[in-house]
Amino acid sequence: MHPTPTAVRLAKGPRPVRLICLSSYVALAGVHQYARFASSFRDVRDVTALAVAGFAAGEPLPATEDALVGLLARMVREQAGDEPYALLGMSSGGVLAYATAARLEQEGGGPAGVVLLDTYVPGDESLDQFGDQLLGGMFEREADFALMDAARLSAMSWYFNLLGRWRPGKLAAPVLLVRSSEPLNGKELAPEEWQTGWTEADHTVDVPGNHFTMMEDLSDSTARVVDAWLDELR
């Protein structure tokens, strides 16, 4: 049996470049992580979110990175049809968006653009200093999003091992990196000490908030940056 991610439309609108969001692969993963962000696109453009397989009890996990990316590429093609689209991923979801974009470009019919929201390359040591804050932030949000049970924690570990050595190559599509402007630990740090670099990005914009709040109370600011960039892709 092959894992099949769930696709949920979160917004609908007339603008020509639809947005397909890929869930992150942490214990709180799911289409719900884009709900507030997508609300800014209602009556503006189509926004669909794809959940990552394996986070529900009994749900199969992808056996290999190749199988995972191939599955996501198929799902994206089914959602996009013949319409222009961009891929987006928050945090580790950006890794999946980038890897899927690379596969789609190899197969033909790649995205018009890729948006990375506070995404770090797997193994980036600058993220290690926020481990406690990231885990604590997930537990604080557990009641609002998803119970971090054994299935979800096991799936997160599986994905971290599966993609731990993944590294990005250069894409033909333009890449927007949207970064949080506040470190999670609240310390006074120079940007280069904690912000993601992602050197393959073509454009980088810092938005208000930290890794969590940029997609929560401050999600409208993040959405405006993304929407303006998508308009430039037409």
Properties at a glance:
234 residues; 7 helices; 18% strand; single chain; globular; alpha/beta
Notes on the structure:
This protein has helices spanning about 35-40, 65-80, 90-105, 130-140, 150-165, 190-195, 220-230, and strands spanning about 5-15, 20, 45-50, 85-90, 115, 175-180, 205. The protein has a 7-stranded mixed beta sheet, with helices on both faces. α2 packs across α3 (about 90-105). It is globular, with a radius of gyration of 16 Å. It has about 230 residues and is of the alpha/beta class.
Mean pLDDT: 88
Biggest sheet: strand arrangement: 1-3-2-4-5-6-7
Helix content: 25-40%
User: What gross morphology would you assign?
Assistant: globular
What is the H/E string? Answer: EEHEHEHEHHEHEH
Secondary-structure content class: alpha/beta
Q: Tell me the radius of gyration.
A: 16 Å
Number of helices: 7
Main sheet characteristics: 7 strands, mixed
Compute the separation of the termini in Å.
39 Å
Low-confidence spans = none
Count all strands and give the number. 7
Portion of residues in beta strands equals 15-25%
What's a quick, concise take on this entry?
By secondary structure, the protein is an alpha/beta fold.
Strand and helix map with partners:
Elements: E1 7-14, E2 18-22, H1 35-39, E3 45-50, H2 65-80, E4 85-90, H3 92-107, E5 113-117, H4 131-140, H5 150-163, E6 175-180, H6 191-194, E7 203-207, H7 219-232
Parallel strand pairs: 2-3, 2-4, 4-5, 5-6, 6-7
Antiparallel strand pairs: 1-3
Helix pairs in contact: 2-3
